[in-house]
Please model this.
Amino acid sequence: MPITRVGIIGTGVMGSDHARILASCVAGAELAGVFDVDQARAVSLAEETGARVFDGATALIADQGIDAIIVCSPDATHSELALACIAAGKPALVEKPLASTVAGAVDVMKAETTGGRRLIQVGFTRRFDPGYIAMKEALASDRLGQALFLHCIHRNAVGPDYLTSELVIASSAGHEFDITRFLLEDEIVSATVASPRASRLAPNRQPQFILLETASGVIVDIEVFVDCIYGYDVRAELVCEKGTVSLNTSPATMLRHAGYDGFETPPDWRDRFKHAYRQQLQGWIDAIHGMPNHGASTWDGYRSMKVTEACLAACRSGQKTAVPVEEMPTFYR
Ligand SMILES: NC(=O)c1ccc[n+]([C@@H]2O[C@H](COP(=O)([O-])OP(=O)(O)OC[C@H]3O[C@@H](n4cnc5c(N)ncnc54)[C@H](O)[C@@H]3O)[C@@H](O)[C@H]2O)c1
Model:
């Protein structure tokens, strides 16, 4: 089996998680290099995994000992690093969002199309979650009839300090935009946003409630509340003509002890989506080795940014905002 030598840019929460998954349970790959602007973080991960520490993203991408790159630095760096990977002809798994502006996503799409090779996969991990995959299969089986509503909830225990009300839409809600398109195989055509008052426990940002319409007439509502305190909680229910299908939020076991009857809620997304993160990385490596790629493409990253942009406009204006529909370029079919 060929071995792909992977370099990781950004060794914070996600970069370290990807590194540990790569080192422990992905076939056909090895972690070969790491870079972080905070060198101590990169060194610490390198000591744990045996990877080489680079002193810049450009050096890591260009190095002959690196075959593929995972971009886990902050959102604003993604499109520039994706462009550098395309220029070097190397595949990259770029954490979501693909870019922090629609223009940035367009630049990546243009570069990839001009280069003539699909090199970028966007880290929309939920496409690899067994629950969402089962929901998609239930809809496709036609037992339930057509979809009418999709209800989504995205709650984090405590968001990072840098997250503003707008970033709750631009960064956190992106997962919901992508999973809507993935589940329904439909494009989002309009967005409306309502913001309740801020929680007194997180006064610097508001939760967001997003209402989307799809081209075929499905209504999607999304609550994004990144300071719910009690834990990480992601839910989805698809309501169809003849029934519903939803994510099962409870794990395989329940606990009854000392007046408690229920299950623990994980503190963050790494535990809830651990299977999906493994499948995503294995799928990405398999695709580099010639298998079909089931991950989100640059087109998916671009469409998600279009929805983000419409939501931000809707949030500022208080008005329903259109998301212009475009035909998917042949290159991405
Ligand atoms: N797919 C998912 O489920 C998921 C979940 C959480 C976060 N994310 C995305 O992953 C990315 C990283 O998030 P995180 O939670 O790991 O953040 P983090 O703050 O824990 O880590 C980011 C790291 O990037 C480093 N960094 C900053 N600027 C850099 C640069 N120019 N070059 C190289 N390194 C740089 C920082 O020093 C830090 O170590 C974000 O884009 C976020 O939106 C994805």
Observations:
- The radius of gyration is 20 Å.
- DSSP finds eleven helices and 15 strands in the chain.
